[in-house]
Amino acid sequence: MPTLILVRHGRSTANTDGLLAGRTPGVALDEHGRQQAAELPGRLGDIPLAAAVSSPLRRCQETLRPLTAARPELPLHTEERITECDYGDWSGRKLAELNDEPLMATVQRHPSAAAFPGGESMRAMQARAVDAVRDWNARIEAEHGADAVYLMCSHGDLVKSIVADALGMHLDLFQRISVAPCSVTAIAYTPLRPFLLRLGDTGELASLAPPDRTDEEGDTGSTGGGTGEGNATVGGSA
């Protein structure tokens, strides 16, 4: 099964202003975020990407613009299911003032019970994001093979919820996960279980390139740059 590279969008104007952007239209990358996006093609330079999939929101589309400019052959798809959580009436408000809302304690400590006024629940957010990943895994494997690597650019809570699912964590624990703007998280999916290869990585990514299949004797059946069922630790492959 494919390896998924999850990119959180670069730093946005809402990040620097301390706002909960949600789906507020027009939220763009700030100057630092644009620099982060400009560095992304170089960080991913050694990885043969089969496709890029983006949230429809502007800050994600802007994050991928330098990458698609550097790789004009790279297919770019927009996926509505990986858009930002619908924070409803909280959208566009200052995070500092939202800390005084009673619901914020639920969001932080018991997110599976949290539903935003006028918006969606965090359970619904995770369900649609994970469904999107599973569907894209199947599509990428069918079109490009089991060793394919593809990229999704999404939002912090979406990335964290996908990681929680991959780790078999309850959604109530997902606030323990942290992913910085324009960080890379990589998950290798296999028929038995996913493997988390990177979490919130802002450095070297070359080792995420798929294994060389030209040498059949050296083929251990691994995926995602050497982590897979074929070379699992003894006793850990049940």
Total count of strands: 6
Overall SS class: alpha/beta
Question: Which of globular, elongated, flat, extended, rod-shaped describes the shape?
Answer: globular
What number is the mean pLDDT?
Answer: 88
> How is the biggest beta sheet arranged?
6 strands, mixed
Rg on CA atoms, Å:
18 Å
Helix content: 25-40%
How would you spell out the order of helices and strands? EHHEHEHHHEHEE
What is the CA-CA span between the terminal residues?
A: 18 Å
Bin the strand percentage: 5-15%
Contiguous helical run count: 7
Low-confidence stretches are 215-238
Search tags:
single chain, 238 residues, alpha/beta, six-stranded mixed β-sheet, 6 strands, 32% helix, globular, disordered C terminus
What does this structure look like?
The longest helix has 23 residues, at about 120-145. β2 (about 50-55), α3 (about 60-70) and β3 (about 75-80) form a beta-alpha-beta unit. Helix content is about 30%, strand content about 15%. The two termini are about 20 Å apart. The protein is an alpha/beta fold and about 240 residues long.
